[in-house]
Design a protein that fits this description.
2 domains; Alpha-Beta Plaits; two-stranded antiparallel sheet
Length: 364
């Protein structure tokens, strides 16, 4: 008689709890939720309830207490499942989460009811509909795995689609936007600023003498240098400032709601960050990099003035920065902003922030 009880009660409930434990660990991994202490907590949780079920099976055979002990942890695990899939930031938000929230939530509520009704029976005050609650919980235990399997399949497909879309919008080497994705985002910002008559600034960034880096140190070091510079630039920018690699060692930044003076300050901070942050190499030496930056600041009020033209103007300022000695920022005058008196300037006038030439041996 001991074997059937061991299989159906102790081992059966234990396997259900272990299955939940494995599933929730996978859920936390999938949703990128930190779980440093959860593993130990779950294991202690399972051991305590397993021992309790074993005690009320072999030493004090009480069916309702076993129902109470088996139902409570399932409700806790279901609540954790709802919490894990509850919408958070946009990178962890999935439409398919609704299926899983409904699955975990519905199962958890029924097992919470089962816990309450079982507790009432244990303390000698049984509630009406005890058997109906038990039957509903049993049916839920059969149907919920099917619903959760559908939800897991749907959210996996959605996650893969998001990854493919992200890869299509990102430069595979540096992780910043590629040209196509940047232009899509920039068009939306450009149209908004045209409606609101607010300033838009464009920066074009080019690393100086980058061909020498590839020729001297190899393309692997050159690739690492590009990633190094992207990190430096991203640290200066706001989180919603789009940064894109347009090819080779050239990058473009769009600064919405940013006037010329603030854009020049941002560009100078980027230039200084690149110059003052040499990249360590594996041989113990460091690679010193500098950047030239072109800038244009404009109000896109003219329907014929496009983001492409603004980028071209910033490129012209970048060429001027290169011609003036590199490692500097050159600004270009764009169309006069709304509300400012005309100045009579109809050509690009460089605004240069010079830096003293480096001392000692020439840098790479």
């Amino acid at each position: 008689m001991g074997l059937p009880l061991l299989l159906s009660t102790v081992l059966g409930n234990g396997l259900i709890l272990v299955g939940y434990y494995v599933m929730l660990n996978g859920v936390l991994d999938f949703m990128n939720i930190q779980k440093r202490s959860s593993r130990t907590f779950f294991l202690i949780f399972i051991v305590i309830f397993g021992l309790a079920i074993a005690y009320y099976t072999y030493f004090q055979n009480n069916f309702m207490i076993r129902v109470l002990i088996a139902s409570l942890p399932l409700f806790v695990f279901d609540a954790l499942g709802v919490w894990a899939f509850w919408p958070r930031g946009k990178h962890r938000r999935y439409v398919a989460s609704i299926i899983l929230i409904v699955g975990f939530g519905g199962h958890g509520l029924l097992f919470l009811a089962r816990t309450i009704w079982a507790m009432a029976s244990v303390i000698g005050s049984p509630l009406i509909g005890t058997q109906a609650v038990m039957d509903a919980a049993t049916l839920s235990a059969i149907a919920t795995p099917v619903l959760l399997a559908m939800g897991f399949l749907a959210i996996s497909n959605e996650s893969l689609l998001k990854q493919v879309q992200a890869q299509a919008a990102r430069d595979p080497l540096t992780g910043v936007y590629n040209r196509r994705a940047f232009m899509t985002i920039a068009e939306h910002i450009w149209k908004r600023c045209r409606r609101e008559a607010c300033r838009v600034s464009v920066l074009t960034i080019d690393l100086d003498h980058f061909k020498t880096v590839n020729d001297t140190h190899g393309h692997a070091v050159g690739d690492e240098a590009l990633r190094h510079v992207v990190t430096l630039v991203a640290d200066v920018l706001r989180s919603n400032d789009p940064l894109a690699r347009f090819g080779g060692e050239e990058f473009v930044v769009l600064l919405a709601d940013t006037d010329r003076d603030r854009a020049l300050a941002v560009a100078e901070r980027i230039r200084q960050a690149v110059e003052s942050s040499p990249m360590p190499l594996r041989d113990g030496t460091t690679l010193h990099l500098t950047a030239s930056i072109g800038l244009v600041s404009t109000v896109p009020e003219d329907p014929h003035h496009t983001i492409d033209q603004a980028i071209d103007q910033a490129d012209q300022a970048l060429y001027r920065a290169k011609a003036c000695g590199r490692n500097r920022v050159c600004g270009a005058e764009g169309p006069e902003p709304v509300g400012e008196p005309p100045t009579g300037r109809d050509q690009h006038i460089p605004v240069t922030l010079p830096t003293p030439p480096p001392s000692g041996p020439p840098r790479s």
